[in-house]
Structures are given as structure tokens and as C-alpha cells.
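Lab manual, section 2.4: Encoding a predicted structure.

Procedure: take the sequence of the chain (145 residues), apply the prediction step described in section 2.3, and record the output as C-alpha cells. A sample record is shown.
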Amino acid sequence: MVNESGSWTPGAPGVLELPSGRLVRGRGLRKGLPPGPEPEFGVYLLGRQPPVTDWAGRWIRWPDFRLPTDCEDARRALQEAWTRADHQRVEIACGGGRGRTGTALACLAVLDGVHPDAAVAYVRERYSPKAVETPWQRKFVENFI
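Recorded output:
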């Protein structure tokens, strides 16, 4: 769902509103593309190359239940996603839409001004209570930036 400004609709399934008002959609790729408009940019967190999309995107090599294989590349991709979310429909997605996606969304919250120690709770409250699945994913968020 998109609002009149062309952004995601706050409160729509998977849409996380950051403190600045930026909206980012998280989703699980195994669930398929939800109804409504397509993203304008996506960041895909997978152990192998994601499917081709009709929109711009970045792939972060990130095996399930682990951390990105290149943390600096992940930081750059998430910074780009955060910047684009100010004026584009951005989605963050992994296979199930919880662990890696939740971790990346928590990192976006840190970029948006949420204290790193509070970012996981922020995402669990506003996106999914099951976001960020492992202790090392939590530590990644706490040490982000």
C-alpha cells in the first residue's frame, strides 16, 4: 500500500516507521510479493544471489542465522537504503522476513537516531516480536556504525 506521497502506508503489513518518519517495508521472500505497488529499491539479505527484480536493489551476502559476510558492504548498502527511504519505497528482505530483515531494520533505526542498545526492542515492538533471532545479530546492531 502507498499513501498520497508515493511512500509506503504507515501501519501497512511489514512497514516500519522510523523516528524521522521514513517508512521501510520488511518482508520474507518466501511469502512472495505482497499486493500493492512494487518497491523502488530493495536490499536482499541472502546466502545466495536473489532473484532478479524490476527495481534497483543491492544484495548483501548474509547466510541464514548468521551475519553478513562483508560487514562494510552491509553498512554501505543499509546506509543507501536509509538515504533512499527518505524519498523512495524501500524494502528489506530475507527468506523469512524476521532474523536478517529484523537485524537490518534495527540497523536502519540506529542510522535514524535510535540508540543501538534500544534498536532491537524498537523493531520488535513496531515490526515483529520475532525480529533479530540470534545473539550475534543483536550484537551486530549494538555495534552498528
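Check your result against the sample. Residues 71-84 form the longest helix (14 residues).
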